[in-house]
Amino acid sequence: MSAPTDTSPDLSHIAARDKAEILAQALPYIRKYHGKTLVIKYGGNAMTDPALQADFAEDVVLLKLVGMNPIVVHGGGPQIDEALNRLGKKGTFIQGMRVTDEETMEVVEWVLGGEVQQDIVGLINAAGGKAVGLTGRDGGLIRARKMKLLDRDDPNKEHDIGQVGEIESIDPSVVKALQDDAFIPVISPIGFGTHNESYNINADLVASKLAEVLKAEKLVMLTNIRGVLDKAGDLLTDLTAKRIDELFADGTISGGMLPKIAGALDAAKSGVNAVHIVDGRVPHVLLLEILTDQAYGTMIRSH
Ligand SMILES: Nc1ncnc2c1ncn2[C@@H]1O[C@H](COP(=O)(O)OP(=O)(O)O)[C@@H](O)[C@H]1O
Ligand SMILES: CC(=O)N[C@@H](CCC(=O)OP(=O)(O)O)C(=O)O
Fold this sequence. Notes:
The protein is an alpha/beta fold. Helices cover about 40% and strands about 20% of the residues.
């Protein structure tokens, strides 16, 4: 019998080798982060595309299955805006914080604690995980008080932004109990006050504080931009506290990036080893950021 002729070369092994190399690259990271807590801020702007949402959910489940403890804190700014628009109301922001009157607070609770949270929980569960949705009320997780927002240019001036909260304290016991039991907590940024009143809290601030209190190894914030950009639109891959002060002062950082950077820096200063702001528009950016050698977006350092 003659030897079989091989007319077309089989190139599939090349693609397979690339894939295998990427998988092998993950090994030291899986070892490094095994048993460690990773806080993931899933921004409202990063969650507008269904395919990307499904990728995100798969990534979270994979991280959990290889032994890490992912905790998701979600935002939902654009989703709240949409709901307000349907009521004929327009969202307004001061220094990245939504002005929250009573009616807006109702919408915030209903959108964040309902639709947005349950969508994420559903997607994670569909990807094979066991997600549980919480608001700051559940298990007494987030105590808050009314935020005092001082004007950035005139610190003698204070803005009244209604039911916006700043975090007074976090009791992480419910999160710890869930993560120890193989669940993935998905947290809405709503806090409660001494009279049981609700507060709308910026999700970046919740994610940062939670990372600090849980002594997380890593905080990854997914947003809808490559990372922090300078005035020329170039990506700043590394930021220290000193450089951040300069960028605040010269107005390079504005809007929703203000609380994000402030929170990220607080987390870095209080011992979270790695704090990253990454582009949630990149498919599987969470896995790429955590499990490969490649650096993505902006890393925030305390010094
Ligand atoms: N220097 C900057 N670099 C990058 N983004 C910036 C900067 N200053 C302001 N921004 C704005 O911050 C936005 C991200 O914050 P935000 O809209 O609150 O997103 P998220 O929903 O992810 O929290 C960007 O889309 C951009 O418009
Ligand atoms: C006080 C305040 O601004 N709260 C935010 C909470 C949601 C959030 O932070 O969503 P993103 O992460 O998508 O921006 C808001 O009402 O929009």
